[in-house]
Amino acid sequence: MKLIVLNLLILFAFGSFAVQGAQAAENVRVQVNHQARAARAGIRVRFVEMVEDSRCPTDVNCIQAGNAKITIEVSKNGRSKTLELNTNSMKGAAIFAGYRFELRRLTPEPRSNVRINRNGYVATIRVERNR
Question: pTM of the full predicted structure?
Answer without folding.
Answer: 0.78
